[in-house]
Amino acid sequence: MSLDQPAPPAGQDDSTGREFTSALEDDDVLRAEHVSKRFGAVTALVDVNLHLRKGEILGLIGDNGAGKSTLLKILCGFQRPDAGRLIVNGEEVQLRSVDHARALGVDAVYQDLALINQLSVYHNMFLKREKVHWPLLANRGMRRAARNYLDEMGVNIPSVDAQVASLSGGQRQAIAIARTVYSEAKILLLDEPLAAMGVKEAAIIMELVRDLKRRREVSMIIIAHNYGQVLEVCDRVNLLQHGEITLDKQSKDTSVQELNDIVVEEYRRALEQRQRAAS
Amino acid sequence: MSQVTEQSPSLLGPSGGTGSRALGLVRSGLGIFVRQREATVFVVMIGLLLYFGIAYNSGFVSQVNAVDLLSENAAPIAIIAIGEVLLLICGEIDLSVGFTFTLAPFVMLYLNIYYHVPALLAIICGLLTGLVAGWVNGFITVTLRVPSFITTIGTGFIMGSMALVFSHAEPQEIPAATVNYGKWIGADSWAQIIWAVALVAIFHIVLTRTRWGLHTIAVGGNALGAREAGINSGMIKYGNFMITGVMGALVGIQTAFYNNTIDPLAGGYQPMFYGVIAAVIGGTAMLGGSGTILGAFFGAIALSTLTDGFDVAGISANPLGIIFGIAIIVAMVVNVQLARLREAGRSV
Ligand SMILES: Nc1ncnc2c1ncn2[C@@H]1O[C@H](COP(=O)(O)OP(=O)(O)OP(=O)(O)O)[C@@H](O)[C@H]1O
Ligand SMILES: [Mg+2]
Structure pTM? Predict the structure, then answer.
């Protein structure tokens, strides 16, 4: 019903005057409207308007501390926004918890990976989604499934019985991604999924992302710092600056050069301002 | 497509020709020993039992002493240690559990004598004292965010003092109506050890084979990560405080039946400290994230073998603390060093 409302205000009140091409569309699976979030004196998000279409891969970029992870944690139910609306599959929701978001088909890979060092690979992969023969854990089933997923992904993890503490950064990241990707969620939020990946592993993950999109009609938001990778795998790019989305473009309409220029330009302007203020 | 067989080629490591089979067996035997956290304390326990058994044959190996050792000394420590292991793993501690021990049998007594609550119900209410104490500890620690070290010192004082007020600081008689149940609970010489073994077995499975155990480890191993994964860490901690409280109450009621008196000076800090020490020398990390209930059980037997053994040996109480302290520290040193070996072994 709320979908029928023509031209939501988000697209219009673009006070920054910068490009903001997207109108919110009818087949959005996820929307954030006027979302804000403060941590004490720090305002992480001022007024975020973002939408994700069905089957779309959206790249979210921005400087360190821009608020990308904060936005992701709000979208996956881990944190609550101070104000604003979230709309999942056309219905406005107040996400109560990570579990609640999961029940709606939204799942996230966190920047810190949320792995438990003391547990084995397969227990981590099924954490909070354990297979159970009540009252006992169905360890054998989880072990086998974990092995299958990792083999299918093509990542090199010697043993699913190994403690996560003993794995490399890239292996840990692969496990965090695998557990979300194979969770049946339809909306995946990935916070810097390629940060610790080698060239080959990054290629594997990017292929996996494309494959997911093709086969399971999954929609995704991917936070990344490497604009080349973002443009390669994402359909659309959003730039988060000063707590707002200041750029929203189809990948094919922009380039690494342009994104670089915008960010560098921004930096130069801030520097000039500071110098002017100092003198 | 999904029928990929389980394969873990590098599990056995790169070595392993058929010729070196015997050597391999020895190595894997050593490997199990090093890998199994309970192994150290198990060896310590057997060593102590053998030492006192051989050195003080006639006194130590008697049946009377075995019952004393296990039912009177080891079982209460082991039962309290169950709760402390769970709490330590999820990053908390309960210093008040010995006072739950003190208070619970008085609750049973007063409900039965003054409020005419039927005996069995009164016993159950005594156990529920522990549940309530655990809930209060959870509320103050989790909801009001006071470190459990402080929380439980506070609640410990309160419960200890309540027991003194209730009893006018005088030992009280076991209510006659409850005596029939008493022999099942703790009066019978083997009752406590059977309870201890059963509870250790149950909670060993809870810790290693159920979601509750897995989530307890997760909360202590990475508090933020566990919450991000969707685990309700507050609920896990509340639950483990409540389990610990019930364990304390049970031991208190058992001890009252065993001694055939309800003593306001029973319990206190000592059983709690023994429980924590048993947990830690058994292989539970003080900083959370890992632990074993089986190890704590062996630790409880080792500790009570020491006290009991010195008793039989007729060593006076004065230097006992010195030997006890050294034994605890030595056990911990061995533990820590073996844990380092385990870490190293894992990367090979
Ligand atoms: N739990 C928190 N408590 C206090 N401040 C926080 C918290 N989480 C984030 N912040 C602050 O909010 C701002 C945005 O942080 P966020 O992690 O969202 O940035 P980011 O865009 O993900 O950066 P990066 O690229 O470095 O990961 C930062 O200034 C950060 O210090
Ligand atoms: Mg971030």
Answer: 0.88
